[in-house]
Amino acid sequence: MNSDIKYLQVIFLGTVIVLFFQENVGLDQVGAQKEIYEPDYSVYHNLTSIVSDLTEIINKYRNFIIASHEFKSKNGHTQFLIRLSNFTRERTKVKILLAYGEHAREFFPIESMFYFLKNLTKGLDKPFEGRPSNTFSSWVVNNFDLYIIAITNPDGRSYIERTKNYCWRGTGAGIDLNRNFDWNYGGIGSSKYRGDEEYRGPKAFSEPETLVFRRLAASVSFDAFLSFHSGIRHIYIPFSDTKSKQQHRLPKNNDDMFKLAKQMSNSSTLRPFKYGLVYQMIDYTADGTSIDYMAGVAEVPFSLAIEMWEHEHHTGRSCFDEFNPKSEHLQDEVALVHPLYVELLSYLFTWKKKKLMTVSSLLRVKKDDRTLNQSDHHDVLYSSHPSSEVMYSASFESLVVCIFFSLVAVVCVVLGARQICQLMRKKRIISLKSLSSTFSLYKSL
Ligand SMILES: *[C@@H]1O[C@H](CO)[C@@H](O)[C@H](O)[C@H]1NC(C)=O
Ligand SMILES: *[C@@H]1O[C@H](CO)[C@@H](O)[C@H](O)[C@H]1NC(C)=O
Ligand SMILES: *[C@@H]1O[C@H](CO)[C@@H](O)[C@H](O)[C@H]1NC(C)=O
Ligand SMILES: [Zn+2]
Question: Which residues form the active site (predicted)?
Answer without folding.
Answer: 307 (proton donor/acceptor)
